[in-house]
Amino acid sequence: MTQRRFIVEPRGLASAQLNIAVPVFSVLAALVVGAVFLAITGENPLEVYGKMVDAAVGSSRAISETLITTTPLILTGLAAAVAFKMLVWNIGGEGQFLFGAIFASGVAIWLGDSVPSALAIPVVIIASAIGGAAWASIAAIPRVYLGTNEIITTLMLNFIALNIMNYLIFGSNSPWRDPDSPQFPQGRPMPDSTRIPEFWNRLDYGILIAIAIALIVYFLIYKTRWGFELRVVGDSANTARYAGIGVSKKILAVFLLSGALAGLAGGLFIAGPVGGLDPRSLVLGFGFTGIIVAALARLNPIAIIPVAFLMGGLINAGPALQSIGIPSATVTMLQGAILIFAVAGEFFIANRIRRPDRKTEDASEKAGAAV
Amino acid sequence: MNETWPIELLAAAMVLGTPLIFATVGEIIAERSGILNLGVQGTMLVGAVSAFWATFNTGNLMLGLLTGIIAGALISVIHAFLSVSLRVSQIVSGLALTLFGTGLASFLGRAGDNPLVGNPSAAVFKPILEGGLADLPVVGPLLFGHDIIVYMAWVVAGAASYYMFRTKAGLSLRAVGEDPASAEAAGVNVSRIRYVHVMIGGALSGVGGAYFVLSVRLVPTWQDSPIGAAGWIAIALVILASWRPWRAIFAAYLFGAAARLGLTLQTLGEPWSNVPSTLLATLPFVLAIIAMIVFASGERARHLGAPAALGIPYFREQR
Amino acid sequence: MADQDLHLAIELRGIDKTFYGVHANENVDFQLRAGEVHALLGENGAGKSTLCSILAGLYRPDAGEMFLNGEPTVFRTPKEALAAGVGMVYQHFRLVPNLTVAENLALGHPDLGQVLNQRELHKTATELGERYGLPVDPAARVWQLSVGQQQRVEILKLLYRDVKVLILDEPTAVLTPQEAEQLFKTMRQMASEGRSVIFVSHKLHEVKQVSDRVTVLRGGKNVGGVDTADAEPADLARMMVGRDLELPTREESDGFGDPVLTVSDLRVDDDRGLEAVRGVSFEIRSGEVVGIAGVSGNGQRELAYGVTGLAPPNSGRVVLEGEDLTEMSVLAHIDKGIAYVPQSRLGMGLAPGLTTEDNLALKAYRRAPYSKGVRLVTSTFKEKGGELIERYDVRGVQPGLPIRLLSGGNLQKALVGREVELESKVLILRSPTRGLDVGATEAVRNLVLAESKRGAAVLLISEDLDELLALSDRLLVIYEGQIVGDLETSEATAERLGLLMAGQSEMSS
Question: Which domain holds residue C78?
Answer without folding.
Answer: 8-241
